[in-house]
Amino acid sequence: MALQIQVLPLPRSESDLRTIQVTDIPFYIKKDDIVVAFKRFGNIDSCRIHAHADLKVQQARIIYDSAVTITQFNDQWAVYCYSTCLRITLCHLSLEQKKSCRKHVALLTQLPANTKDIDLTPLFWQLNAKAVNVPLSFNSYKPKWWAYVTFGSQELLDAAIEKTVALQNRQ
Predict the structure, then answer these.
(1) Could you give the residue ranges of the DSSP H alpha helices within 24-114?
(2) How many CB atoms lie under 10 A from the CB of residue 25?
(3) Where exactly does CATH 3.30.70.330 map onto the chain?
(4) C-alpha 34: how far from chain center
(5) How far is CA 8 from the centre of its chain?
(6) Does the 15-100 domain belong in CATH 3.30.70.330?
(7) What sign does the dihedral 93-98-104-108 (CA atoms) show?
């Protein structure tokens, strides 16, 4: 049996081992809301929020007091805050690993008007998805008619495409 050795890049800092990045945060969700949503996973040392100049969403960088706390986010790539699914990325991952977390995405179209991320939760679990995002209109902040559904692998994405699902009594 041959051993395979993989050289992993070192995190930028020790705190990266305890840090997650949270994306797709609408502006109506404030820092206190983020802290409440994420403190149930462990003790938070720091939470910083910043906005992109061109986008109508924010990002947060949450540092926990222990690296053990963020291990649960290896499998859980999203957390709901109000009706919004917030995507999570571990900060200590390499660029390639981060890209692979966004690699297997399906577009779910023809959603009923005003469908929110939380409305897709049953579908999310049924399809073994990792995250779901219904984009918001740039001007009105109303939900669009489609969603991005992220999967952990190509196999899960392929299996989901083969399924017929119903949402609010529509197939």
Answers:
(1) 31-39, 95-100
(2) 22
(3) 15-100, 104-161
(4) 13
(5) 24
(6) yes
(7) positive
Cβ-proximal residues to 98 (8 Å cutoff; 6+ apart), any chain: 89
- 135-165 pLDDT, tens digit each: 988 778 899 999 999 999 999 999 988 877 7
**Three-class SS state of 113:** coil
Do 78 and 129 contact (CB within 8 A), yes or no? no
> What residue spans of the chain are helical by DSSP H?
31-39, 95-100, 121-126, 154-161
Q: What is the pTM of this model?
A: 0.82
64: tokens are 């926990």
Reading the block at residue 140, the tokens are: 């009105």
- So what's the architecture of 104-161 in CATH? 2-Layer Sandwich (3.30)
What CA–CA distance (Å, rounded) separates 171 from 166? 4
Q: Is the pLDDT of residue 53 over 80?
A: no
